[in-house]
Amino acid sequence: MDKIAVTGGKPLNGTIPVSGSKNACLPLMAASLLTDQVFSLTNVPDLADIGTLSALLRSLGATVTHDAQNSRLDLHFARISSPLAHYDIVRKMRASILVLGPMLARDGAGTVSLPGGCAIGARPVDLHLKGLQAMGATLDLRDGYVHATVPRSVNGGRLRGVSFRFPFVSVGATENLMMAATLAKGTTRLVNAAQEPEIVDLARCLSGMGAHIEGAGTSTIEIEGVDALSGTEHKVIADRIELGSFMIAPAITGGDVTLANADMSLVGALAEALDAADVSISDTPDGIRVVRKNGTIKPVSIITEPFPGYATDLQAQMMALMTLADGISTIEERIFENRFMHVPELARMGAKIDINGGVATVTGVDSLRGAPVMATDLRASISLVLAGLAAEGETVVSRVYHLDRGYERVEEKLRACGAQIERIQGAD
Ligand code: EPZ
Question: Ligand 1: residues within 6 Å at CB?
Fold first, then answer.
């Protein structure tokens, strides 16, 4: 397993190109199941999770061509030849559940392994299933799989449009039901839907395929089902979580970094938090420029919430920054019940953090010290790299396969701004 070694203490200066969004790309790839024509994505990041979903789609019958050099992915489901998403792939990536809605919409049948819990929480998929049931699917949960069919008694085997209210916001369930609804008979109304930019991107792509969707990006989305969807070519939006992670890099190290290929519409709540921390964010023709306003970082308190609130996927990174703030900050995690696993690792580097339920109280220290630390999930991993960039001495982050799920060429991008960072391949 690879490790990443970071020698900290150097300010970062330069430009970092932001890749296409992993979390937008995964549902978009699942949308390829909705058409028998060629479906192409550009600005696709070259990441482990994209490879995992490609493998799953291949196992369902897709022809998949990934041109990583040109960030392009071509998917073609002439037919769904084997509508079974096997445990061996689903267990690697929970987003695999996103194939269920499209499979049901296109062929009225699909079997998907139930994803287990994961490091950051139990993460059930009950809302995905309840929504599909409301649309007429019959679900049989056995042997760890959900076997779903649309009985012939329901529109001859075709999902029906419904009004479905989410009891709380779920990004994945909104995406799954939105895709399912595009080919359903009648109109679907999703109430209390997720409003994330990834939802808007998915709606844009589906509309390009001929779907009728209104309201994406608001809490109510209406989808009028059509008989068939065509292929399309769609450019994936920039990764706002990669962008946010790298915006925190010059904030924690000092320096002057511009994030290219990204725009301010993706960074609302983070930009506000960084501004409150005394970090200057400006929109320039070359991208988003981030510079510390002066030598100190001000403490900031955040609460994670669905978009447009502060993203849970940027919580660990903000905590890394707050370990060096001039005062006390509180960080409240409201989306996942177990997303503080970076805390003991940051503590190994000298951070002072107390956890009480879902609230972490961070007392800023003057400096962090490099240490061997272990990555526990994707966003925890990058928070340790960020802390390592600011720490005195060397930090070695192990289990970086977590990082590779969501950050493309991370060492190369940071090194180009002067970071001393390298990958140690195949280390224990
Ligand atoms: C998406 O996960 C992202 N993943 C996550 O990014 C992100 O943290 C999360 O949204 C929240 O923003 C992808 O887009 C692939 P949810 P998702 O359904 O869709 C509970 C990263 O680091 N819930 O919005 O799975 C759930 O347990 C990752 O890139 C149910 O109870 O998140 C959680 O507490 C990690 N039942 C909350 O809702 C359900 O049926 C929000 O989850 C569905 C969700």
Answer: 23, 26, 94-95, 121, 123-128, 170-173, 312-313, 335-336, 378-379, 406
